[in-house]
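Example: Peptidase C14 caspase domain-containing protein.
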Amino acid sequence: MTTTTAPAGTARRALVIASETYGLRGCRNDAELVGASLRAHGFDVHPVHGPDATRAGILGAYEDLIRATRPGDAALVYYAGHGSTLDEGPGRPPGAPEELRFLLPTDIDRSTADDFRGILGDELSVLQWRLTLRTRNVTTLLDSCHSARMSRDPLPEGTNVRGRQARWPRGAVRRRRAEAAGLFRRLRAEHPDEPWYDDNPHAVRLVACSPGQRAFEAYSPEFGAVHGLFTAAVVAALDAGLTWHMLGERVRHRVLTHHADQRPEAEGPTSRVLFGEARRERPTALPVRLHPGTASAWLDGAALHGIEVGDAYLLGPLGGAPDPATAPVAVVVEVRDGAARLVRRDRRAVPDGAEARPVGTGRPAGPVRLRVDGGAEALPPGWPDRWRAAVPGLRTDTAPAVGDLATIVVRPDGVMLFDTAGRPLYERPRPLDGEAAARVGRDVEDLAVAARLRELGPGSVPYRLSAPVAFDAVVAATGAPVRDAVLHPGDRVRLRVRHLGAAGAGTLYANVLDLGVGGRVSVLNTAEPSGVELVPGESRSLGRWPGGEDPGLPVSWPAGLPRDAPRFETLTAVFSDRPQNLGVLVREGVGGRRDVVAAPSRDATRMAVLRVTFLLCPGGPGCAHA
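Written out as structure tokens, the predicted fold is:
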């Protein structure tokens, strides 16, 4: 294990909470294990457990952490214990979610009709936001679950679930939630420029399982005591050289190996290196799925990811960094039922727990034309080869530019990029230096990915869901449909995904993509990066604030994109019957800022794709839509 120390002038503090209630046996063990590991990484650890882990004790310790934290400090909050939910049902108040989730302190049984002793998720969100107002370097680890939806399958001997259901005082719970809503509104008023989209954009969160799953504890031979599967996996994989995304991938694979019904998730700015604010670019890597009967290797979502026969991938462990010189290479040999089958070039088996990183295919991103204004003699020697390498399939002929994805214009004062309609994507020429071709090539690739995703629709996936789904997008101010509307920067849109299937139809997962102007691709369901979990009949909103208010997600114009004319933007909802993390589709786009700030066929992942397109007008003197 690699350890680090805090930069000079900063501190590392951790609040480590263990609430061992209702038969749990490993929470205190977890807290001690995590505390020892964090101390090795230079953290000052404040443990809260036993009689101190009451509602008041936990909240008081969190307040102490907020007060002590200074800009640049590292702050980490860890919790091991039970979680639970209150099902609001059909009579819930306006704006309330179907479930209220909370943690169970050690004094939860002392709750009364007027004094609920649980700690709501909304309350934790407010505390976490206050902490990120002090420092951006915030991490939360939760080894618990909310078990209202969980199946009642028999548990392996010696295994406990960290979720608890009981009859909770509904009125007292709602009052706690109303208090959290008031605190959040006050913070929004005091800090109007601080972003909040589907979640806190500054805090990294690692959670033991998805909202509808169970988190387990059992005896760990590695550590010689009862521990949460999630906690044991985190401590075993903790290495300061990793990013939180890499750690999350390793933890997920380790936990799923022990128990297939617990899928940990990593949320927030997971490209950060552990315990710091430095970021490392997230690799474009897809998890490899092994068919349980044949052990054949598959990549799901072939249409989403633009996978074709002949594409090559480097194979490596989840969350790893394979060496291109030594890593095995696998090639797509068929695309069937929405999935792509991989075969290693050396004909060996693909191991379990692998991910695939694409090797350059040389396939054109789309029809892209290169034009030189002012004479090619002024350009450096060898420039055509450099540009063709950066943009495969680049055309230099003079045929009519019908259907071109983009046009690159090289001129003495720099390089410009134009979209398919001939509109400029740069406000001013970019420098024509040695890196120009590579930079423009990345912009063209972003445009190609966005264009491919924009073409997806209900008929794009061959293996469709058996249950009906819906995707609603309305203008927050008017309630009018977003489809074919004209929106301006500052407008807000409310987004909702719905599972319309009957009872027994199975859980679905919804990812919502914003295909913005300028080639930007954003995933808007940041609070549940593997898809918003939906049980039959359930409806979920994106971007809801703690406390229940749904102001809608704001629309913005990308910085650096000319404000010359309206441009089309598309919102696409991808529903699947398995968790699908579509973060690998994220693209910066030309402006570098989000617009909406946000096998055998039976084994293939079922999907459904729904989309909504609108016109985004930059406003200003030329706007004719006011």
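The chain is about 20% helix and 25% strand.
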